[in-house]
Design goal:
Length: about 100
């Protein structure tokens, strides 16, 4: 495959990512009243719960940065922070669920 084909694939992947990110924001919003507030009031899983909230906030803020901060100095940082925390997300979510279920049991 030539460079142009790869570039086209990257464009489609980012589009897919953008769509998935929008659905994720919708689900995160729904999670606040039905999950986060309920668990917070019961005092369950507070540490990993806070980590989950912080992680998602970092992803959202850096996504904003990727979209709107064009500066040569800032964009690479946004890109690396977004990517690093994005890759960490599945492992931390799994740990959050594991510890949360254990506390509830
Ligand atoms: C954006 C943030 C969060 C996400 C994406 C998230 C996601 C999840 C998911 C998918 C589960 C598994 C549910 C199941 O057991 O079927 C879970 C469980 C749990 N989470 Fe969270 N969570 C978040 C924030 C929080 C916060 C802030 C707290 C605590 C204040 C918390 C406390 C718990 C607890 C206690 C469980 C065990 C099951 C339960 O009691 O519902 N979570 N979380
Ligand atoms: C709440 C979750 C997330 C939101 C709202 C979000 C949103 C975004 C947005 C708006 C962009 C810019 C798209 C563009 O420039 O056209 C982006 C880029 C990107 N995202 Fe996410 N994302 C999230 C989670 C993740 C996760 C879990 C990963 C996994 C590694 C990830 C990896 C990337 C990568 C690699 C880029 C391209 C970075 C660059 O252009 O330098 N994102 N994301």
């Amino acid at each position: 495959m030539n460079g142009e084909a790869w570039q086209q694939i990257a464009v489609y992947l980012l589009m897919l990512h953008g769509g998935a990110a929008m659905v994720t924001l919708l689900l995160l919003g729904a999670l606040v009243p039905v999950h986060v507030l309920r668990a917070w009031r019961r005092g369950h899983n507070l540490v990993m719960g806070s980590v989950m909230v912080a992680l998602n906030a970092i992803l959202i803020v850096t996504a904003f940065g990727l979209y709107y901060l064009g500066s040569e100095a800032v964009r690479p940082w946004m890109s690396w922070v977004h990517l690093a925390f994005g890759v960490l997300l599945p492992a931390l979510l799994a740990l959050h669920i594991f510890l949360g279920r254990r506390q509830r049991a």
